[in-house]
């Protein structure tokens, strides 16, 4: 009986990972971001791919007191003996509104390109036409275009242009990023208002352009946020706010008769 794997194996004397000797070939020679990419893609990324990939991880690591960070801090307040529980609580909050947008946007762009066919638009005007048709279809179906808008950055998400520039500099500004940029240019014609291209969305586009599976992109967002959550928990130990947050809500809770329609 055998169980095939292309990842890690070990014997009494050796640990091998991705066909490499862990201690001789990888430790001290491969960055963690490079290894994370390699583990999923089963190929070693180029230096340019590593730079874009690690820029995505940095962009998604922490965004202040988001619900995921608050969940981690309050879970740690409740169970300080369970660091893994606090980390897990934060990661479990990665969904369609926070973190999950990375995968949602990457998948959306991937689907639009797949429907369009293998021949890519030749210029910005053609990209705009493709984007305009996609946004119209999305609105007509009663759905939202993932990657548009942000609860804090109402005009411009500072991460978006920087990541596009990094990808451009490494020759990795591919069709997903080109389509996402086009959506940013044309969506106002359909939606009637201008929204920023958010950082989570541009990260999804960049990851898709690296050839990573769209259905796994949320995992990379969670990988990045795990570092941020660990930082949040470390700060909760140094300068706790969890108890204040809990007491602020608990002591200001107001009973509302469930039979009334007035929630005020």
Question: What is the mean predicted local confidence, pLDDT?
Answer: 94
CATH superfamily of the domain at 101-215: Cytochrome P450-Terp, domain 2
Structural class: mainly alpha
CATH class of the domain at 101-215: Mainly Alpha
The coarse silhouette is flat
Largest sheet: 3 strands, antiparallel
How would you sum up this structure, described in words?
With 264 residues, the chain is mainly alpha-helical. Among the domains are: 35 residues, no CATH class; 115 residues, Cytochrome P450-Terp, domain 2 (Cytochrome p450-Terp, domain 2), CATH 1.10.230.10. Helix content is 59%, strand content 3%. The protein has a 3-stranded antiparallel β-sheet. A hairpin with a 4-residue loop joins strand 1 and strand 2. Helix 4 runs antiparallel to helix 5. The N and C termini lie far apart (65 Å). The model has no long low-confidence stretch (mean pLDDT 94).
């Amino acid at each position: 009986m055998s169980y095939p794997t292309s990842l890690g194996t070990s014997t009494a004397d050796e640990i091998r990972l991705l066909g490499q000797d862990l201690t001789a070939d990888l430790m001290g020679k491969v960055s963690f971001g490079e290894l994370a990419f390699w583990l999923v893609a089963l190929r070693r990324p180029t230096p340019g791919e590593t730079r874009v990939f690690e820029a995505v991880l940095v962009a998604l690591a922490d965004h202040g007191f988001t619900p995921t960070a608050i969940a981690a801090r309050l879970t740690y307040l409740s169970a300080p003996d369970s660091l893994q529980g606090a980390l897990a609580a934060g990661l479990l909050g990665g969904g369609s509104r926070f973190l999950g947008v990375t995968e949602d946007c990457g998948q959306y762009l991937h689907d639009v390109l797949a429907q369009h066919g293998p021949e890519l638009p030749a210029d910005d005007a053609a990209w705009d036409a493709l984007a305009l048709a996609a946004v119209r279809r999305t609105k007509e179906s009663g759905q939202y275009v993932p990657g548009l808008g942000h609860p804090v950055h109402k005009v411009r998400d500072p991460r978006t242009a920087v990541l596009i520039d990094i990808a451009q500099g490494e020759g990795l500004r591919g069709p997903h990023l080109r389509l996402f940029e086009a959506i940013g240019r044309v969506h106002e014609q359909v939606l009637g208002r201008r929204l920023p291209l958010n950082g989570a969305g541009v990260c999804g586009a960049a990851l898709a352009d690296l050839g990573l599976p769209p259905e796994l992109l949320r995992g990379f967002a969670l990988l990045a946020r795990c570092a941020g959550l660990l930082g949040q928990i470390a700060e909760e130990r140094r300068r706790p706010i969890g108890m204040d947050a809990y007491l602020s809500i608990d002591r200001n809770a107001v009973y509302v008769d469930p039979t009334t329609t007035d929630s005020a």
